[in-house]
Design brief:
This protein is an alpha/beta fold. It has helices at 112-116, 133-145, 167-179, 194-206, 220-226, 264-281, 283-297, 301-321, 336-346, 353-370, 376-388, 401-408, 439-449; strands at 44-45, 50-53, 56-59, 71-73, 89-93, 100-105, 123-129, 152-158, 187-192, 212-217, 231-236, 239-246, 252-255, 421-424, 431-434. Strand 7 (123-129), helix 2 and strand 8 form a beta-alpha-beta unit.
Length: 452
């Protein structure tokens, strides 16, 4: 294997050493590194700050501690669309003694051992919503208790929707946990999309000052992004996700069969986050998406499985380097500053998160172009792929320049009064997280996308 070296900075370009993604075969053993056969990939830091695997090295700047973990063990040898008792694909998130696996595959809820080995006490609280409970709650309870009579499962079923991601709804989880006399050895299980995962994780981080929890995401959005990395929290009327904690799960179980019941609008919303990974750090993945978007929209099981795996690999690698979002992890928020302003200003739940992020991404790309940081071909490709995914490319007509500015001023990435943004810079797959930009470009972008 030839030696490759890529500089690691906040302006990040990650180009996995694979063959063309358009040639992806889910039964092959090609991952982020070219392997002769399926294997576990773990890049560990030496004292010199260099990461090595054989003759592969990735340098990193001083000040970043930890290790890159693109651990992708492929052990599935059948289509994800087929019921199988085969072991799942596993992507590891390496965070020292808080490391955990992401299990990806079809029929995983029919494999009780995957969940049970991550439950250490006798009591479990399943947190779900009114949409998901009738579909999958019984299956999850069976998976937790089959052959395991010592475990009892309580549940709390919350209303469905972003507008319920607040303190009042969160209290229902605490009420149930306290009424059920759960102790510090209990496990919370988040069964649902991003809203359920965020609230259940925050409840787990807070209840008795921290109990174990497991993520079982049932939407594309949650499977490729929000369930991985330990961001938990709730919304405030003045801003999205302003109240929360970094708190890692024991595992993430992605049963791709749950996507069969996902509405088309939710499917498209999740693809906004998939597209993001290609734009900020994985150009080959973006090119693969351009060739396979029609199959993604048609729910081709193999294509969806690959998109989920590749997205999780990207997310796991970044989280392993920068868990608490001191710099590098912030790049995962491309389009989110504009998007969160849309969600807050337009009303939580009026647009899905991915829809707002899609429009926000177009705005961030427009601003990047106005700054002279990217060429017009990237602008066109972004608009084209979002059109293929049936995602919006402009904010709601009711959004004004002042609404954007007032909400963005409260964004979590503001530091000492300076709004920092994730913008594209250079060739496809490169971005920066910066507060050093011409404010006129921001004003011009907002004016171009808002009527007032």
């Amino acid at each position: 294997m030839a030696c490759t070296t890529n500089a690691f900075t906040v302006s990040l370009s990650s180009k996995p050493n694979t063959k063309s993604l358009s040639d992806f075969n889910p039964n092959s053993s090609d991952f982020c590194l070219r392997l002769n056969k399926p294997a576990k990939v773990s890049l560990r830091c030496s004292s010199s700050g260099e990461l090595n695997l054989g003759r592969v090295a990735v340098s990193r700047p001083s000040g970043i501690r930890g290790k890159i973990c693109a651990n992708a063990t492929q052990v599935m040898d059948q289509s994800v669309g087929e019921k199988s008792s085969k072991a799942p694909t596993i992507v590891e998130v390496h965070l020292g003694n808080r490391s955990y696996p992401i299990y990806i595959g079809s029929g995983l809820l029919d494999q009780p051992e995957l969940l049970q080995k991550h439950v250490h006490g006798k009591k479990v609280l399943a947190v779900t919503n009114t949409t998901i409970a009738p579909l999958y709650l019984d299956k999850v309870v069976d998976a937790l208790t089959k052959g395991n009579p010592n475990v009892s499962v309580e549940n709390v079923i919350l209303p469905d929707g972003e507008k319920y991601k607040n303190m009042d709804t969160l209290m229902k989880v605490f009420d149930k946990a306290i009424e059920s006399r759960l102790d510090r050895r209990c496990t919370f299980v988040a069964l649902g999309g991003g809203v359920i995962g965020d609230m259940c994780g925050f409840a787990a981080a807070s209840f008795l000052r921290g109990v174990n929890f497991i993520q079982i995401p049932t939407t594309v959005m949650a499977q490729v992004d929000s369930s991985v990395g330990g961001k938990t929290g709730i919304n405030h009327p003045l801003g999205k996700n302003l109240i929360g904690a970094f708190y890692q799960p024991q595992c993430v179980l992605v049963d791709t069969d749950t996507l069969y019941t996902l509405p088309d609008r939710e499917l498209a919303s999740g693809l906004a986050e998939v597209i993001k990974y290609g734009l900020i750090r994985d150009a080959e993945f973006f090119e693969w998406q351009e060739k396979n978007m029609e199959k993604l929209m048609a729910r081709d099981p193999n294509v969806l499985a690959y998109a989920i795996k590749r997205s999780c690999e990207n997310k796991a690698e970044v989280v392993s380097l920068d868990e608490k979002e001191s710099g590098l992890r912030a790049t995962l928020n491309l389009g989110h500053t504009f998007g969160h302003a849309i969600e807050t200003g337009f009303g939580y739940g009026q647009w899905l998160h991915g829809e707002a992020v899609a429009a926000g991404t177009v705005m961030a790309v427009d601003m990047s172009y106005r700054l002279g940081w990217i060429d017009s071909s990237i602008v066109k490709r972004v608009n084209d792929i979002l059109l293929q995914a049936k995602l919006p490319s402009v904010p709601p007509e009711t959004m004004t320049v002042e609404m954007f500015k007032s909400v963005m001023a409260l964004d979590k990435k503001v530091a000492d009064g300076l709004l920092r943004l994730i913008l594209l810079k250079g060739s496809l797959g490169n971005c920066v997280f910066t507060g050093e930009y011409d404010r006129k470009a921001l004003d011009d972008t907002l004016s171009a996308f808002c009527k007032s």
